[in-house]
Amino acid sequence: MSSTLDLGSILATLTSASRRPRYAFLVLGLIAEAARADGRAGPWIPAKGEGERMALRDWLARQLAPLAANDRRRAALRAKVAARIATQDAAVIDAALAEETLAIGRANVSRAVSDLVRAGLVRRHYAGNITDHVNRGGRRMAVYAVEPPVLNAIRSRPTLV
After folding, report:
1. Mean of the pLDDT values across residues 32-59?
2. What is Dmax (Cα atoms) for the chain?
3. Cα angle at 58 between 56 and 63, to 5 degrees?
4. Please, where are the H alpha helices in 37-156?
């Protein structure tokens, strides 16, 4: 990877590595925003409450959730969730919908990060209770590291595109 990247070359790289390059670029921007000076983000991100924290992937999914709030698929998902839980209580349906939306968001973020890793823009490893285990899920949390030239290109701009 070249040490002199700009946003255009990052987008061109993503276009060749991802089926959803704009979404992957949004995820990259959020990871860069959450990253420390060394370019690493996670496994925990400070939440809004004092002393609270949340997993990086959950934080990313919550940040991107408003993108689909007015989507026609959200109405279909709401109907599917309401039918599955068999209640008309709006609060229960909203809670189940939020849980389902977060699960879908986590999966979307994971796919986007896989695209970013494939493009060579981000490195991913896991931290947590079980560190050397073939099962990536073993109560470990994702840590994403943005490559230094990419981080510099993103942070050198006051606003992204």
Report:
1. 88
2. 56
3. 95
4. 56-64, 72-85, 90-118, 148-155
Give the angle 32-41-125 at the CA atoms, nearest 5°. Answer: 120
Taking the C-alpha atoms of residue 60 and residue 142, their distance in angstroms, rounded to an integer, is 12
pTM of the predicted protein model: 0.82
- Asked whether the beta carbons of 126 and 40 are under 8 A apart, the reply is no
Using CA atoms, how far apart are residues 34 and 13, in angstroms rounded to an integer? 22
Query: How far apart are alpha carbons 126 and 139 in whole angstroms?
Result: 10
State pLDDT tens for residues 89-137: 888 888 888 888 888 889 999 999 999 999 999 999 888 665 555 555 5
**Do 34 and 45 contact (CB within 8 A), yes or no?**
yes
